[in-house]
Amino acid sequence: MHLDDMLDYNKKFVEGKEYEKYATNSIPNKKMVIFTCMESRLVELLHRALNIQNGDVKMVKNAGAIIRKPFDSIMKSILVAIYSLKAEEVTVIGHYDCGMSKVDTKALTETMIEKGIPRETIQTLQHGGIDFDDEFHGFETVEESVIQSVNVIRNHPLLPPYVKVHGMVIDPGTGKVDVITRGE
Ligand SMILES: [Zn+2]
Asked: How far apart are CA 170 and CA 142, in angstroms?
């Protein structure tokens, strides 16, 4: 398992005091929250491409950088970053070639069944009001999706007026960003 490799490495990391160069506190130096996709190509590239160092930003991630409901856990994290951790800017960063673009929810459901979820479990959830299309659909274009996420944040009744909310799309190959909307 990869977990064992990680644990071995971790032991050496701590013993070698490699953490020393990352020392910082929990208030983000750039007073920014970044909300982005869980995309593995961005794990390191996003930081490097935008010159983000340890301690610089609060980072919130989910599949697709999607917020559609004002009180989901992402929005709560953003509000905590603003009120408790002094963030003043929020940047939503979607990316080209995202797995949440045009998700085929029927195929996804079939994959769940193939991988061992009983069909009856899925039917029970659907009868209970869980709409798989709604929950897993993702988006048509990333630009449109970033705008939607930005608008949920900008229009949030608990967002203080001084907070600026920006939207960008990053290329997961080159790290180049395109600004879609800039908070003024
Ligand atoms: Zn993605």
From this structure: 10
User: If you measure from the C-alpha of residue 158 to the centroid of ligand 1, how many angstroms do you get, rounded to a whole number?
Assistant: 27
Q: What is the separation of C-alpha 7 from the centre of its chain, rounded to a whole number of angstroms?
A: 25
Give the pLDDT confidence of 142-152 residue by residue, as tens digits: 999 999 999 99
Q: If you search the block for the tokens 């929005």, which residue do you land on?
A: 75
d(CA 16, ligand 1 centre) in Å: 35
Domains and CATH numbers, the chain: 2-98+142-181 (3.40.1050.10), 103-137 (no CATH)
pLDDT in tens, 64-106: 999 999 999 999 999 999 999 999 999 999 999 999 998 999 9
Q: How far is the CA of 14 from the centre of ligand 1 (A)?
A: 32
